[in-house]
Amino acid sequence: MTSALQPRHERLIEPDSHVQGFRKARDARRTELAEDYVELISDLIADSGEARQIDIARRLGVAQPTVAKMLKRLDEEGLIVKRPYRGIFMTEAGERLAAESRRRHRLVEACLRKLGVSAETARLDAEGIEHHVSSETLAAFERFLGDG
């Protein structure tokens, strides 16, 4: 009997299956930044009543022009509203996206913790994993945790 961790010497998977996997990964990367930004903006507003470009840049460890470019994209996508000299506000669509991203993050982090991963590592790892898991996998995580 072979272990799940032992290398398998099987045929390559079908090309269509490869395409699906790579397409899913590309789509996740495309939405990952938007999700991180709206989640952070929502958290900043909840915590201090406002979200400013300088605070976003500091929290994400990026330059303000990088943040300005993303905020323009999020505004164009209807996820936020930028008001000159007044900061950044969430739209309903932005709040829904932030809440879903936050829920996925908490679920992945809780699953990792239940597997015995340290709190800090689980938090850091969940930050990347949350954007790449399917709803089927999230449902399995919920069952594993006993929440579903």
Layout: helices, strands, pairs:
Elements: H1 15-48, H2 53-60, H3 64-76, E1 80-83, E2 87-90, H4 92-114, H5 119-129, H6 135-145
Antiparallel strand pairs: 1-2
Q: How many structural domains are formed by the residues?
A: 1
**CATH class identity:** Mainly Alpha
Name the average pLDDT: 86
Q: Largest beta sheet, briefly?
A: 2 strands, antiparallel
Order of strands, main sheet, comes to: 1-2
What name does CATH use for the topology? Arc Repressor Mutant, subunit A
CATH architecture verdict: Orthogonal Bundle
**What is the end-to-end distance?**
33 Å
CATH superfamily: Winged helix-like DNA-binding domain superfamily/Winged helix DNA-binding domain
- Number of H- or I-type helical stretches: 6
Shape: globular
How helical, in percent, are the residues? 55-70%
Relative strand content: 5-15%
Give helix and strand order, one letter per element, not per position. Answer: HHHEEHHH
- Return residue spans where pLDDT drops below 50 for at least 5 consecutive residues: none
Pairing-aware structural class of the strands and helices? mainly alpha
Radius of gyration: 19 Å
Could you give the count of β-strands?
A: 2
What would you say this structure looks like, in words?
This protein has 148 residues and is mainly α. It has one domain (22-145): Arc Repressor Mutant, subunit A (Orthogonal Bundle), CATH 1.10.10. The chain contains six helices and two strands. Strand 1 and strand 2 (87-90) form a beta hairpin. Helix 1 (15-48) crosses helix 4. The longest helix is centred in the N-terminal third of the chain and has 34 residues, at 15-48. The chain starts with 14 loop residues before the first helix and ends with a helix. The mean pLDDT is 86.
